[in-house]
Amino acid sequence: MSCPIGLFYGSTTGNTESVAELIAERVGFDQVHRIDIAADGLESVAEYEHLILGIPTWDFGELQEDWDDLWQVLEAAEVQGKTCAVFGLGDQIGYGEWFVDAMGLLHNRMKEKGAKMVGYWSTEGYDFEESKALTADGKQFVGLAIDEDCQHGETQERVEKWCAQVLSEFGMAD
């Protein structure tokens, strides 16, 4: 495998795919291989040393359809000892009670499977009611939270900062 980072994402509207593209640009196309799970599945997860997983939250805290379809495949994936970061998209105004819940579900699944989770992100600058994607103290998200509906103007800067953080936590600081 020529790229040490596998960036797996599911995207229905194209927003998560766009954020995955921003992450790949920032990290470097020579360092990351983007995988749209709707087209290519999750079977190659075990091939990567480092993982970045992207998931939007749908409706009332639900998994995006591609992740939902492949949830059992993820359950069987060998991720023990891999370093993993997650990013999630949500709408903190329209769905404030479930903001980036799917990211929390994905984080928990990976952690339960033995992945070393990194990329935690401050809740500062967000305005939501509840989220399953919070750390126990409620001060951080378990990954990068993106709101393309209400805070599109923040996305570029958040991705830049988060990628630098994640690369450092992967031991690949640039």
Task: Please supply descriptive tags for the structure shown above.
two-stranded antiparallel sheet; 174 residues; alpha/beta; seven-stranded mixed beta sheet; 5 helices
Task: Characterise the protein shown here.
Strands 1, 2, 3, 4, 5, 6 and 9 form a seven-stranded mixed β-sheet that branches. With 174 residues, the chain is of the alpha/beta class. It has five helices and nine strands; from the N terminus they run E-H-E-H-E-E-H-E-H-E-E-E-E-H. The chain is globular, with a radius of gyration of 14 Å. The chain has one domain (5-169): 3-Layer(aba) Sandwich (Rossmann fold), CATH 3.40.50.360. The two termini are 20 Å apart.
In short, what is this structure?
The chain is of the alpha/beta class and 174 residues long. The protein is built from five helices and nine strands; from the N terminus they run E-H-E-H-E-E-H-E-H-E-E-E-E-H.
Q: How would the blueprint of this fold be written?
A:
Elements: E1 5-9, H1 15-27, E2 32-36, H2 37-40, E3 50-58, E4 62-63, H3 65-76, E5 83-89, H4 101-112, E6 116-118, E7 121-122, E8 140-141, E9 144-146, H5 155-169
Parallel strand pairs: 1-2, 1-3, 3-5, 5-6, 5-9
Antiparallel strand pairs: 3-4, 7-8
Helix pairs in contact: 1-5
